[in-house]
Amino acid sequence: MADQPTAIERFIQGILPENPVYRQLLGLCPTLAVTNGMKPALTMAVSVAFVLVCANVVISLIRNLLKPHLRIVVFTLTIATFVTVADRVLAAYLFQMSKTLGPYIPLIIVNCLIICRCEVCASKQNPFTAAADGLGQALGFGLALASIAAVREILGTGMLMGFRVLPALWPDWVIMVLPPGAFITLGLLLGLVNYIDFKREEARK
């Protein structure tokens, strides 16, 4: 389709202009649940990237066979297949991380971000563009999770991925690694992103 974004446009849009978390507010359940540490956040980001890219490519390959009234069912079954692969690989090779993430890996099946990309891009464009779209959105999702996890882990424990980054005298803000810390951090970072966006728009006028 001539009016559809190109592969490079899809890739770039997913990172910042259409960031899944900060601009589209998609995939907020794992965003809030697994960002109390950088390691689980990155593991979730990689898992979502694998599922998103694979699902986008498969849906794009079969897009001409999709029936409108069955497309959501096909999307869900395709996503579930790759989520099962990711879940079993984690359980086999990263068992403790699999236990830490608990139900949030299987819940990728109902992640609205992936279903959204299947509907918006993969069901309409070629596999190369669909893969680029998946990579861009996955990178944007990973950056959002990493930024939230970094703030929460540093302020909550004074450490990042096992290394101390704040002085030992730092009084750990335990609330930051608890569920309220996820809402506080996401709210503050969302406000910061919107403020920067507002200032950029003002500068253009």
Automatic annotation (TrEMBL):
Pfam families: Rnf-Nqr
Coiled coil regions in record: none
Keywords, alphabetical: Membrane, Translocase, Transmembrane, Transmembrane helix, Transport
Subcellular location, record wording: Endomembrane system
Cellular component per GO, a single term: endomembrane system
Principal subcellular localization: membrane
Transmembrane segments: 41-62, 74-95, 101-118, 139-161, 173-196
Membrane topology: Multi-pass membrane protein
Source species, domain of life: Bacteria
Entry-linked InterPro entries: NqrDE/RnfAE (IPR003667)
Name of the protein: Electron transport complex subunit RsxE
Organism: Desulfobacter hydrogenophilus
